[in-house]
Amino acid sequence: MQGSQAVVSFGHMRDDARRRIETGIVRRSDGAKNKCTEENESAKNESAKNERPHKVAFRFIGVVDVGGCWTPYRKSTAKICPTRVQAKSNAMSTLKQQHVAGAVRALSRARLSSYRSFFTALTDREAFGLYCWNESISQCVSRALAITEVVMRNQFHGALSRRYGTNGSATSRDWYLHLRLTKASEEAVKKMTHQRARVSGRWQLVARTPMPWPDDVVSKLTFGFWSHLLDAGHDTAGALIDWPSILVEVLPGHRYRNSAYWVARKNRDRLFARIDYCNSLRNRVAHLEPIWKAGPLLEEDRPRRNLTQSPVQRSPSNPAEAITRLHLSYNRILEMMRWFSPDMYSTYLVSESHHRFMSLNTPAGLDAYRMHGGHRRERPVEIGAFRRFRELKRELRRIGKRHGAAEVVHGERRLAVWTPLS
Q1: Listed residues 325, 345, 367: the one ending a domain
Q2: Model-level pTM?
Q3: Furthest-apart CA pair in the chain: how many Å?
Q4: Domain with 407 in it
Q5: Is residue 339 assigned to a domain?
Q6: Run of H or E including 91
């Protein structure tokens, strides 16, 4: 990491506080004022006329623009948001020993045993902190998977609706009733489109009346349904499904944009393998399993009668390898998101969830959670306690390098929160 990304906002700062920051005046706690030289103050005021207040204020602590700006220091990414911030002080944690003891009893030592052995956690506090790290990582992965699942089913639904179906709108039709799906896929659809009813004294599956809207049916299909959808070879009329043309339309962000590539079954099998891989990650997160646990990484292919998947990477055996594997898995999710929707992919890359994952899935992020379990907080940084903005800048850099978070306050008023992102 070569810098720190920052997002700045001042919320409801009082006019006098904003003015003091803009003009370089910082009030000390003893009431004395420290002003810039008259020449510098004049230059700042002149430049401030056409700039928003937070741009002027935080230039002095290394932030040069809003949204995605880089500060000149290394090893921390910091974000400034409207919340809070406080003065020079040592770090403190809200996680007390009684909290740890209660959490360990609630989670059970058996559940934490894998964290103790794999990460060499020596205390209950470390084991619980690592458990919290896994939970935070899982939240980020879960959000990436959720967005990928939505764009994937929307792409398949739109492309197939334009070719098959009778009921619904031009972009949302009941195509699933016009394809010869596998037995498992057909049963998954019928759970939404049919119901059990007595017919001539016998229980049978009959179509619901009225038939559910196609959007409702598609939204309830599982992640795994979409990989096995590729197994459908014919429609109900017996005609071949033109998967090459459909996949070109479904995957606008894939590197291969010609239908000839998708004619080969091995290439469709690679798509099947990627969807299946992401589905297995989703199931691990949904079942609250440790996401850092992983078996051997297999080549992206589909096992068939005369073909087995070869391992390309062994199982992670230490924390560094676990972090590397998590990065690989996360990148596969993002790549699949880009295949289905380049726009959604570019939007996700600037999301807080993405930056949070990049921050957490590092040795520094792991060690920080090992110590404080995600409960660590710096005491608020009182902006009035610093004679110069240079001192405030130095203090915030120190916090960022220690992978900490801090509130910036002015008296009782919260100005911003400084948190590392990557």
Answers
A1: 367
A2: 0.73
A3: 96
A4: 376-418
A5: yes
A6: strand 91-93
